[in-house]
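A further point concerns the way the authors explain their paired sequence and structure data. Since the whole study asks how a given chain folds, the encoding of that fold should be made plain. A single example would do more here than another paragraph of explanation. An entry of this sort, consisting of the sequence and the corresponding backbone structure tokens, reads as follows:

_____
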Amino acid sequence: MRPLCLGIVLAAAIAILATAGLAQKDAAAGPYKVIKTAKVGGEGGFDYISADVENRLLVMPRSGAMGGVTLFNLDTLAPAGSIDSVKSGGAVIDPKTHHGFSTTRPMTMWDAKTLQVIKMIDVGAARPDGIMFDPFNERVWAGSHMPPVMTVIDAKEGTVVGTVDIGGQAEQATSDGKGTVYVTVMDKANVAVIDAKNLTVTKHIDVSSKGVSWGTGISMDAKNHILFSYWRLPEPQVLIINADTGNIIASLPTDLNVDTVGFNPNTMEAIATAGAGTLVIVKEKSPTSFEVEQRLKTMPGARNMVIDTKTNHVITNAFEYGPVPANAPPPVPGRMQTGPPVPGSFTLLMVGK
């Protein structure tokens, strides 16, 4: 690891203390609580989880030697099958064709009913990481850090229809459902706006005026054309943006290691998970008025989530962790530091009212 400059370390420490204070202040307030936990075990890392809401499946990809794709019942969190050979950081399902896709290299296409691998999809030099299914034209979007492209795949045929160079490292993506895709450009302090039909970048929404870096999640209120863009440094925050004009309407604090996020149109809430173990819920009171509705404590390391829009439940996940070793390197700014995961402790959490 390269040495960290004192200024960065101090800035990160101040941000951690500030967000910790806010979390303590607001932890008990708000309508949400953890309503169910399931210690499902299994080893291997995790990243982008997803849900097939129509067919009531939670999709949990795991990486590493012990990983694989595991499906769970979205209502009960009971195991619903697995494909042990497919180890990846992200996975999604097309609810119509029941075709699943995992961010391996080459990418893996599999059948969500039979749990059999259908084919491998050559994505060239791309290294798939984040992944999104866009129901607008039934395509899967997989983001790569290097090269900085989005690879777009036809979910019916499992064929690459094109790539889009977004000019920087691709993190989470979201769609307005009408032909426009928005992608966090993690290292460039902007959001790429993409024409989903023509696969071209139409513009970048620049947020560098806020001095932010290390972008992570993005979600959207498609009805009102509002983007919720999340950044880790210099302090964890969400920038609320008018998607049409690019104007920043507001910014609100989140928590350390904020990561994947979503927007629930049923409740008009932008929801984010953070590795510090906080679920941060932002209420959209109107297209110009927003507030942090609740900061709910979950589990340290629970930085990934998905919204079940049928029940309005949020699913997140984490290991239990042992103590940080005495000889551990200094924490990376913007990222949660943990000890080693406790074997067999991997847990799913269901959050609801």
About this structure: Residues 1-27 have pLDDT under 50 and may be disordered. The chain has one domain: 6-352. The chain has one helix and 28 strands.
